[in-house]
Amino acid sequence: MKYINKRLTVEKVNFQRIAKKFGTPFYCYSFSKLRENVNKFKNNFKSFSPLICFAVKSNTNVYLIREIKKFGLGADVVSLGELMMALKAGIKPNKIVFSGVGKTFDELKFAINKKILLINAESLSEIMVINKIAKLKNKKVRVGIRLNPNTDAKTLKQISTGKKENKFGVNKNTFQKIVDFCKNSKNIDLKCLSVHIGSQILDHKPYEKMLNSVSQILGKTNHKFEFIDLGGGMGINYSDKKESLNYKKYNAAINNFLKKHKVKIIFEPGRSIIGNTGTLISRVIYIKDSGKKKFIILDAAMNDLMRPALYGAFHRTLPVIKSNKISNKTYEFVGPICESTDKFITLKKFQKLKEKDLIAICDVGAYGMSLSSNYNLRPKPIELLIKGSKINIIRKRQKHTEII
Ligand code: PLP
Questions:
Q1: Which residue among 45, 59, 199 is best mutated to probe the pocket of ligand 1, counting the most ligand atoms within 8 A of its Cβ?
Q2: Distance CA 19, CA 397 (A)
Q3: Cα(4) to centroid of ligand 1, in Å?
Q4: What pLDDT does 255 receive?
Q5: 160 has a pLDDT exceeding 90
Q6: Cross-strand bridge partners of residue 385
Q7: Which of 29, 194, 295, 336 could tie 120 with a disulfide, CB 3.0–4.6 Å?
Q8: For 246-294, how does the pLDDT look when each residue is reduced to its tens digit (9 = 90+)?
Q9: Residues near ligand 1 with C-beta < 6 Å?
Q10: d(Cα 8, Cα 243) in Å, to the nearest integer?
Q11: Ligand 1 atom 8, closest CA
Q12: Distance of alpha carbon 254 from its chain centroid, rounded?
């Protein structure tokens, strides 16, 4: 995205033009950014050619998943719905892994019927259910066990998943119990050890620790794993500080690991593939002066983009048409929803805004639309994919008639 003639532009189209044609709020994705992210990700780890399974939870738009599939990626899913969506997008079952702490009997049955690559189980009870279904169907099912390595990912506590107080995965003792159970089962083919310690990770050291824990476990266990699924979690730069994960060091740590363990690596990235491809464009409905600050009341709200309300997440917020006039009042960008947490960001020295101006909320491609809801009975926004000068509608704006 850049300003051309003071207008914020994605690829070859400016947001003002899109807003005029499609109304606001809208999600808009850049295809060239998506391609760039996938290529970068592949390049970062090209020495061992991992299987890259896109974490569908980060963005469930079938058109985007289809594009991602064309780049050769598989899918990481966490529910029957996501599994069905990955299949609908054309991802082959042998490139799909299924994670999640609470897969139901029906979800597991569907996954087993589809012969997906791996069901990454997260408890002994889940393994028992998989075993039962596999027995009933007289099948041998490929599974992974998700280890909780008790590693602090040094990220927001709400998106940390690899510490012992988190519900995810199993501890070392349970891990070994499950290995022993699987070895005695005719219906389970134990193929994978999986880990995922959290999201928006910008420090490579937690990954190094995680690899050490996995290495230790592999050294102790009496089982030969074909795959190690290292999950996702690679952070992106949301701020202006140019923060980024040191992929070189992470890659070096994995290469070291691979010297000791002859396995195939799987990744489950979501945010690092799709996060910075998306922008949410919204129009200022009203401006309300409260004395100390001005509330900039947008037509987008927490139901459209939940991350700020849910985690206090930061998203760069920009004017769609640039001017040099700076406001001396603090601006608080809020939505129309009846919750005080329906607030995107508070900014000082923003350019002067007036009602009907357009605002861009950046880097919302991951956990933006996929976390959206109809709260306050607000219809979900339209999603657009930009390819050069072409604007493709990849999800229609929801109508009130669809939700009432
Ligand atoms: N894999 C699992 C099991 C997850 O829970 C998540 C999200 O937290 C991901 C992959 C994707 O993480 P991210 O979008 O941070 O890459």
A1: 199
A2: 13
A3: 35
A4: 98
A5: no
A6: 29, 392
A7: 194
A8: 999 999 999 999 999 999 999 999 999 999 999 999 999 999 999 989 9
A9: 55, 58, 76, 99, 161, 196, 199, 231-234, 268-272, 366
A10: 23
A11: 199
A12: 22
